[in-house]
Amino acid sequence: MKPAGPALLVNAALAGLALVSIFPLLWMLSVSFMPAGAASTLPPPLFPAAPTLDNYRDLFARMGMGRYLANSLLVAGAVAAGSTLLNVMAGYAFAKLEFTGRERLFRLLVAALVIPSQVAIMPLFLELKVLGLVNSYGGVIVPALAGIFGIFLVRQSARAIPDELLESARIDGATELAIFRRVIVPLLKPVIVTLAVFSFLASWNDFMWPLIVLTDEAHHTLPVALASLSREHVQDNELMMAGSVVTVLPVLVLFLALQRYYIAGLLAGSVKG
Amino acid sequence: MTSTRLAAWAFAGPALAIIAGFFLLPAVAALALSFTDFDLYALASLRNLRFVALGNYAALLRDPLFWQALGHTVYFVAVGVPLSIGLSLAAALLLASPLARAQAFFRTALFAPVVTTLVAVAVVWRYLFHTRYGLVNAALGHVGIHSIDWLGDPHWAMPTIILLAVWKNFGYNMVILLAALQAIPAELYESARMDGATAWQRLRHVTLPSLGPVLSLVSILTVAGYFQLFAEPYVMTEGGPLRSTVSVLYYMYDQGFKWWSFGMASAVAFLLFGVVLLATEAIVRFARARGAA
């Protein structure tokens, strides 16, 4: 038998860290079920004495939370679907299809990764204004429809596909589109799921750009709506915790379901980057 | 042959068009914009637009509010990044320990804050650190510490924001460092043990040097990320109290979308970009000097 001391220490430290990580989220959930005012007592209660769904009812019936939730689902869903498709197509082209200037173009894209996105914010706003996309879902969706990082990830995976596979399909008379749909997409399935999860989460959690471009409340996504609600309802802690739950829960569930793909993408991006 | 070439452009074209049109072009235009006095009047008619050369940059460097915002941001980065990476490393070492049980569960639990929505957890944080009703002060009260006005005191507001950032972000680097730890060949530890190295010596002379390249990569990415501080003060303090949590991006947001000074705001963005490049360069040099890059 090994001495139990060190093992106990390691696991106790991990348990402590896990508690610190999870506790704020659990407390948020607990307070969201408390009646108005119950959380503003001393000392603050850990559990609701009489659990209620009033806060959620309030949010959806009176504060338009359903609308914001639908907006978020629409925007993040469109970004995830569109950007995954475009990035997979481009990443495949950069890995497997010859064209003039391919390598130089790719190096240029990778070099552009150092430019922080907020550098482009002001001209982008003016550009979208000209295009009539300010204060529309398109203003958030269109600029996010492709990304250098996504192309980079797909290219990494697609390079592992043997050229003979494509050649024999071409000899059999398959069109380039057919090759992409029947050969490439099935082989790239893991990275496709990774990209979809990544872009959905990034779009769902994004704050600054939607705050800028979605000027009208009817278009607000959950984070923008929650930020403005929390300024109006500074004292309504129970209500705000319910709003936070509605905002966080979908992405947390999505992550837990597809965790493997998310972590794989995170590692692929950092090791090669 | 030409058909593949055509196909290549058909496949890569849409993504390249989006990136060129909605990222590269605006980024280049921003540099031009930063040399103009683009404001509300120019927004109405471009005839009101004037070229001011480096005027915006000069004005910013003379503006005490800009220096204040830069100071707050540097404070956030200088304290937040070491804390964040330190905690990531500690957590990764614990998870990689052969003594650790239920690794998968712990890894998921520690990573969970990373995927949460920043605005939502900032709202939760504001309540946790509420002076009267927050759990943090209640817990501190139990051990006899007088309640602290976390978000109302200019000295405490930024530390509270740093705590939120560290809590939310450490899991990300933890996963990267954990993978790097697991890639260190076991023979290295074996031979160190045979040479009689203690656990501490193995950590210093085997583990940390092996992690060197990953640590500098992680530092660069984290520094670049932490310089983008915006949503936390926007939600938790609105930049207060006494402007003590106004960050550079917050300042840029106000310039751009409160005062509509797009020229000035673009100059702010480029100054911040420059600061990030300088910080990155410093990390690279430091890593090279330590033989880690």
Outline:
With 273 residues, chain A is mostly helical.
* Largest sheet entry of chain B: none
CATH homology superfamily name of chain A: MetI-like
> What is the name of the CATH topology of chain A?
MetI-like fold
Q: What is the highest CATH level, the class of chain B?
A: Mainly Alpha
Could you estimate the helical fraction of the residues of chain B in percent?
Answer: over 70%
* Contiguous runs where pLDDT drops below 50 for at least 5 residues of chain B: none
Q: Kindly estimate the percentage of residues of chain B that lie in beta strands according to DSSP.
A: under 5%
Mean pLDDT of chain B: 94
Beta strands of chain B, count = 0
Shape of chain B: globular
What is the rounded distance between the termini of chain A? 44 Å
Give the tally of structural domains of chain B. Answer: 1
From the N-terminal CA to the C-terminal CA of chain B, the straight-line distance is 42 Å
**Looking at the structure, what is the overall shape of chain A?**
globular
Instruction: Give the CATH architecture of chain A.
Output: Orthogonal Bundle
Q: Write the CATH homologous superfamily of chain B.
A: MetI-like
The greatest interface here is:
A-B, 95 and 92 residues
Q: What is the helical fraction of chain A, as a range of percent?
A: over 70%
